[in-house]
Amino acid sequence: MIVMTEEEFLTSKDAAFNFGDSALHKSNSSVSKRQRTAQLKRQDDLDTELMEKRGKLREEYAQLIKKGDIRPPTRQEKLQTIASGHPDLEATKAAKRILAKVSKSLSTALEI
User: Is the pTM of this model over 0.85?
Assistant: First the structure.
């Protein structure tokens, strides 16, 4: 059985959360209004296509979970993944603290 989050599944199917284009956010005075409108329309079409693809893949992910081919990661597995991140990130530090606290309380419970 494969353990995979929905976003990992979508990314593996070439539907990563990649909406918009950062170059379109800047004001480009060298582009005519007509060209700018065409660029925005083209990007809007790409975003709409991606949104539809992600919707279909979400349904497929839900079906695979129901069939038992894929399962979402447990909270513990998510924390372990986050804890193995870059040591300077706050999320990594927080995940390590939570895992330490859980393992400490688990060992205390086993002693009783």
Answer: no
